[in-house]
Write a structure and sequence with these properties.
Number of strands: 0
Organism: Proboscia inermis
Protein name: HMG box domain-containing protein
Main location: nucleus
Pfam families: HMG_box
Strand content: under 5%
Structural class: mainly alpha
Number of domains: 2
Order of helices and strands: HHHHHH
Keywords: DNA-binding, Nucleus
């Protein structure tokens, strides 16, 4: 009986992400998905060697689980390696590709992080993130509008640079295959012709002829 391909082992960083994502999201409720990922990455780089050992041990245990499972794995016919079959290889990230623009929140975070850290040197990463988030939420409409304007300009700049990057690097930008549109299905209308036959009601009038009896 063939054993199905098992899940690949998770890295120390992925265990850290799963462990801290909810916490970082709670500390930064205004951060989007991409912003949350960046904040988790910053937090991971700041953990101590002792803290990292916990996640390294989890990753090592998961790798051992994977290796044991793969010993009993039988590849399907036509597959020569233990690699999971994929429809297309994931393209390597090009270092020359334009970086995605920052959001309003991340612009504020980058501008204020060092200032707040200097004013509060004893703050932990989580407390620092909470304070940045709190100050961001307390901004008035004018200050937020300025940040939104900066974010909009960065997005416009990114879109121009990305279009130029696609033009000069056509082989590095995947082209989405257009799906063939199916012709519209025309339903045939069932014509039900009801022949209404008008029945003429003819009144039968009995003409009674008076016959004179002649003797």
């Amino acid at each position: 009986m063939a054993i199905h391909m098992t899940n690949r082992p998770m890295s120390s960083y992925m265990y850290f992400c799963n462990d801290k994502r909810a916490e970082v999201k709670e500390e930064n409720p205004d951060a989007g998905f991409g912003d949350t990922a960046k904040l988790i990455s910053i937090k991971y780089k700041q953990i101590t060697d002792e803290e990292r050992k916990k996640y390294d041990a989890m990753a090592a245990k998961d790798k051992q689980r994977y290796l044991v499972a793969m010993k009993n794995y039988t590849p399907p016919e036509g597959e020569t390696s233990g690699k999971r079959p994929t429809s297309a290889k994931k393209a390597a990230k090009d270092p020359n590709a334009p970086k995605k623009p920052l959001s309003s929140y991340m612009i504020f975070s980058n501008e204020k992080r060092n200032e707040i850290k200097e004013q509060n040197p004893d703050l932990s990463f989580g407390d620092l993130a909470k304070k940045i988030g709190a100050e961001y939420r307390e901004l008035d409409s004018d200050a937020k509008a300025k940040l939104d304007h900066k974010a909009k300009k960065l997005k416009e700049k990114y879109e121009v640079e990305f279009q130029e990057y696609k033009r000069t690097n056509p082989s590095k930008t995947p082209i989405k295959s257009e799906k063939k549109k199916k012709p519209p299905v025309v339903k045939k209308k069932e014509s039900s012709s009801d022949d209404d036959s008008d029945s003429d009601d003819s009144d039968d009038s009995d003409d009674s002829d008076d016959s004179d009896d002649s003797e």
